[in-house]
Protein backbone atom coordinates (compact mmCIF):
# COMPACT_ATOMS: atom_id res chain seq x y z
CA UNK A 1 0.00 0.00 0.00
CA UNK A 2 1.45 3.35 -1.00
CA UNK A 3 0.61 6.77 0.47
CA UNK A 4 -2.20 7.52 -2.01
CA UNK A 5 -3.86 4.18 -1.29
CA UNK A 6 -3.48 4.76 2.46
CA UNK A 7 -5.04 8.22 2.19
CA UNK A 8 -7.99 6.81 0.23
CA UNK A 9 -8.53 3.93 2.66
CA UNK A 10 -8.42 6.17 5.74
CA UNK A 11 -10.67 8.72 4.02
CA UNK A 12 -13.33 6.07 3.38
CA UNK A 13 -13.01 4.48 6.84
CA UNK A 14 -13.16 7.80 8.74
CA UNK A 15 -15.62 9.45 6.31
CA UNK A 16 -13.47 12.57 5.91
CA UNK A 17 -12.12 14.24 2.77
CA UNK A 18 -8.90 12.87 1.29
CA UNK A 19 -7.32 16.33 1.52
CA UNK A 20 -7.82 16.29 5.29
CA UNK A 21 -6.25 12.85 5.63
CA UNK A 22 -3.33 13.90 3.44
CA UNK A 23 -2.78 17.01 5.60
CA UNK A 24 -2.85 14.91 8.78
CA UNK A 25 -0.30 12.45 7.37
CA UNK A 26 1.93 15.34 6.29
CA UNK A 27 1.67 16.78 9.81
CA UNK A 28 2.50 13.39 11.31
CA UNK A 29 5.57 13.11 9.08
CA UNK A 30 6.78 16.58 10.03
CA UNK A 31 6.26 15.95 13.74
CA UNK A 32 8.06 12.58 13.61
CA UNK A 33 11.03 14.16 11.82
CA UNK A 34 11.22 17.00 14.35
CA UNK A 35 10.90 14.64 17.34
CA UNK A 36 13.64 12.35 16.00
CA UNK A 37 15.84 15.39 15.37
CA UNK A 38 15.35 16.44 19.00
CA UNK A 39 16.17 12.90 20.15
CA UNK A 40 12.68 12.21 21.45
CA UNK A 41 10.94 8.86 21.37
CA UNK A 42 7.46 8.83 19.80
CA UNK A 43 5.07 6.10 20.94
CA UNK A 44 1.61 5.54 19.51
CA UNK A 45 0.15 3.02 21.93
CA UNK A 46 -0.64 -0.31 20.30
CA UNK A 47 0.63 0.80 16.90
CA UNK A 48 4.33 1.64 16.90
CA UNK A 49 7.27 3.30 18.59
CA UNK A 50 9.83 5.40 16.72
CA UNK A 51 13.14 6.43 18.27
CA UNK A 52 16.61 7.59 17.33
CA UNK A 53 19.41 5.18 18.18
CA UNK A 54 23.16 5.33 17.85
CA UNK A 55 25.22 2.80 15.94
CA UNK A 56 28.82 2.44 17.09
CA UNK A 57 31.80 2.76 14.80
CA UNK A 58 33.00 -0.62 13.58
CA UNK A 59 35.25 -2.36 11.13
CA UNK A 60 33.62 -3.99 8.13
CA UNK A 61 34.78 -5.80 5.02
CA UNK A 62 34.39 -4.94 1.38
CA UNK A 63 32.67 -8.10 0.04
CA UNK A 64 34.33 -7.80 -3.37
CA UNK A 65 37.93 -7.34 -2.25
CA UNK A 66 37.89 -8.59 1.35
CA UNK A 67 39.61 -5.35 2.37
CA UNK A 68 38.86 -4.01 5.86
CA UNK A 69 37.07 -0.67 6.00
CA UNK A 70 36.23 1.59 8.91
CA UNK A 71 32.51 2.34 9.23
CA UNK A 72 31.91 5.53 11.26
CA UNK A 73 29.41 5.87 14.10
CA UNK A 74 25.98 7.05 12.97
CA UNK A 75 22.52 7.89 14.20
CA UNK A 76 19.69 5.78 12.86
CA UNK A 77 15.94 5.35 13.39
CA UNK A 78 14.39 2.32 15.06
CA UNK A 79 10.71 1.53 14.48
CA UNK A 80 9.13 -1.06 16.76
CA UNK A 81 5.72 -2.60 16.08
CA UNK A 82 3.12 -2.17 18.80
CA UNK A 83 0.91 -4.87 20.27
CA UNK A 84 -1.93 -4.41 17.76
CA UNK A 85 0.42 -4.76 14.78
CA UNK A 86 2.14 -7.79 16.32
CA UNK A 87 -1.23 -9.42 17.00
CA UNK A 88 -2.41 -8.75 13.42
CA UNK A 89 0.79 -10.27 12.00
CA UNK A 90 0.56 -13.36 14.19
CA UNK A 91 -3.02 -14.05 13.07
CA UNK A 92 -2.00 -14.42 9.41
CA UNK A 93 -1.16 -17.99 8.40
CA UNK A 94 2.39 -18.63 7.21
Automatic annotation (TrEMBL):
The keyword DNA-binding applies. Gene3D superfamilies: IHF-like DNA-binding proteins (4.10.520.10). One of its GO terms (cellular component) is cytosol. Pfam families: Bac_DNA_binding. It comes from the Bacteria. One of its GO terms (biological process) is chromosome condensation. Keywords: DNA condensation, DNA-binding. Belongs to the bacterial histone-like protein family. This is DNA-binding protein HU-beta. It comes from Geodermatophilus obscurus. The lineage of its organism: Bacteria, Bacillati, Actinomycetota, Actinomycetes, Geodermatophilales.
Amino acid sequence: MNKAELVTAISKRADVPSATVDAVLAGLQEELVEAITRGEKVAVSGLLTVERTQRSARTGRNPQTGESIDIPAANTVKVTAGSNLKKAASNVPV
